[in-house]
Amino acid sequence: MKTAFLKTMPRLGSLLAGVSAAAFLMVGGTGTALAAANCVKGDRKAPFTIGWANIYSVPTWMKQTEGTITAEVEELKKTGQVKDLMITDAQGNAQTQIQHIQSMIDANVDAIVVIAGSSNALDRVIADACDKGIAIVNFDSLVNTDKVTAKINTDSSQWGATAAKWMVDQLGGKGKIIIMNGPAGISVSDDRRKGAQPVLDANPGLQVITETNTDYNVAPAQEAMTSLLFANPEIDGVLSLGGALSAGSVMAFDRQGREQVPTTGENARQFLELWKEKGLKGWATMQPNWLGAFSVYTAVQALEGKDVKPKITVPLPVIDDSNVDSYLARADKFPADGYIYSDYDKALFDKLLAQ
Fold first, then answer.
1. Separation of alpha carbons 74 and 234, rounded Å
2. Residues of the chain with confidence (pLDDT) below 70
3. String of b and e for 235-247 (b: at least 16 CB within 10 Å)?
4. How is the chain split into domains, by residue range?
5. What is the pTM of this model?
6. 347 three-state secondary structure
7. CA–CA separation, 281 vs 52, rounded Å?
8. Taking a C-beta distance cutoff of 8 angstroms, is the pair 159, 314 a contact?
9. Which residue from 36, 79, 103, 156 has the highest number of Cβ atoms inside 10 Å of its Cβ?
10. Any idea where the Periplasmic binding protein domain is (predicted)?
């Protein structure tokens, strides 16, 4: 398996300095390994057909993630494990995504990999696919139903809590902050926000003056923050729960001539570059794009009869002043509006599945 760097498509591996392959061992799992992977049944033999039911492909993070999926499929084709990849794009509409998944069921694909456009709207169609013996691997934005082969994600609640704790430390527990969230109703966005709340409750000196929800893109985030800057003359920190959101915030502050404030974020190249350029007090973590490739690999392992746990949690790295330069040293390998994600390989995936 080769590390994939998206070259032809502009949100949607050795590991980066300070982030070893061992650091990405699975830290959580629910229950014990199943005698056979959930959902998988019937006469399914390699080479397999994989369905990739994407909720939307416009954000660069999603495009990069799809790049890891297509690259992984190409590697698995070489070994005779995969035959075809069916890709759909629901363009942000959960009902359209349901229709796409139904079309994959009708086509009797062997596995469906999905980022959910809604945590509950997809439950029925996902359960139906599972009942028909199709391997279902859900990553990043998760469904509520447990009728899946595996759910793969970082701990979004921990993401929000750790970012909030960093902000508390930066401001000494006192100050006025703005919270920038991703789209409402998307589990990864909602869970990050929920994770931050207990920390905020424990530190009442940190006043949330307002918060906003935008797509994970720089332009809408910058526009939203520009409006908030006009309405709020005093802002001490930006608790941003997404990398493109952070970049949009920094750009809005800069355009309005406002002094930059401590800002959290993600491994978005633009945010990390602005962090260094503006001398920002910053903190970030990473939702690895290779979760997509790992999901395909997991589906194939399940179809081949391997035990796969129903929940696989990939640990979150921390990006701060001690290691941000090591990320930026590889920036030219990623799109200007992309995410600098760590390398991955089969050995890493096998370690994650073995825990």
1. 52
2. 1-35
3. bbbbbbbbbbbbb
4. 21-154+288-315+346-354, 156-285
5. 0.83
6. helix
7. 38
8. no
9. 156
10. 51-307
